[in-house]
Prior knowledge:
Order of helices and strands: EHEHEHHEHEEH
CATH architecture: 3-Layer(aba) Sandwich
Largest sheet: 6 strands, parallel
Structural class: alpha/beta
Oligomer: single chain
CATH topology: Rossmann fold
Helix content: 25-40%
Number of strands: 6
Number of domains: 1
CATH class: Alpha Beta
Amino acid sequence: xxxxxxxxxxxxxxxxxxxxHIAEGARALEDMDVHLLKAEDLTGNPQQLLAFDGFVFGxxxxxxxxxATFKAFMDATGGLWKGHRLKGKLAAGFTVSSLPAGDKQSTxxxxxxxxxxxxxxxxxxxxxxxxxxGVPYDEAANRLGSWSGLMAQAGHSxxxxxxxxxxxxxxxxxxxxxxxxxxxxxxxTALAA
Length: 193
């Protein structure tokens, strides 16, 4: 059994909504114990991260980066960094903004750098954009064409569940892909032992 934590901050519910769908996708695999955790609940005790084999980090994109709450969580892991305690764990990331681009790439890059500094192994978004095969744009998986992590778009001031079907489909597929990578990594480690 592998333990995966989907760690997120969500001020208006949009990022939480995508986090839930990522977790659902990951839970579709057997031998996967998936936990949804708020970043702000881990800031005071980042040692809780040691119980997990992998992480999916999520934050809204605010002014081209992670939210202050998510950054506080990242900064709180400094003690774990000093001992390289998260080295070798799996990591992936996702973000939500109200515009199709919205500088989401820089948010994913900050998560990537965070994971690399901890010595984690990054899983990108291996989903081909379905609109290229004739699926209507709003229904297409990876319609925003992100490879470094999952990107989703929610309308400004829209309800938390106001995503197009393609973004929800992408979240499920992304969660499943990360879980599959975690299971494959565990198998490879077992075979090498």
